[in-house]
Amino acid sequence: MNDLTVKETKVEPTTVTTTTTQLTSKDTKLGILLGSIIFWVGMLMFIVGEGGTLAFGFLLTLAGFGVYLGYKIKQWWNHD
């Protein structure tokens, strides 16, 4: 005859880890976009311009790059 035995086993509940994904905020995206637009408008003025337009285009390019870089650092720093 076959004896059937029941063996008790204790099962521990498993822990579920959730991962949260943070999206980039709209003001940061807008700042990056504006910085890019200012940069390229300044670059275009710098390449095509002459005299005062050349200097203004150069300054606009630097300003656009500064805005873009500032918002990219903000995005990295705040992880938003």
Low-confidence stretches: none
Helix content: 55-70%
Main sheet properties: none
Total number of beta strands: 0
Structural class from helices and strands?
Answer: mainly alpha
Query: How much strand content do the residues show?
Result: under 5%
Give the SSE order as H and E letters: HH
Q: Overall 3D geometry? A: rod-shaped
Mean model confidence by pLDDT:
85
- Distance N to C terminus: 69 Å
Please work out how many helical segments DSSP would assign. Answer: 2
**Rounded radius of gyration (Å):** 29 Å
Secondary structure elements and their pairing?
Layout: H1 26-48, H2 52-78
Helix pairs in contact: 1-2
Concise description?
The protein has helices at residues 26-48, 52-78. With 80 residues, the chain is mostly helical.
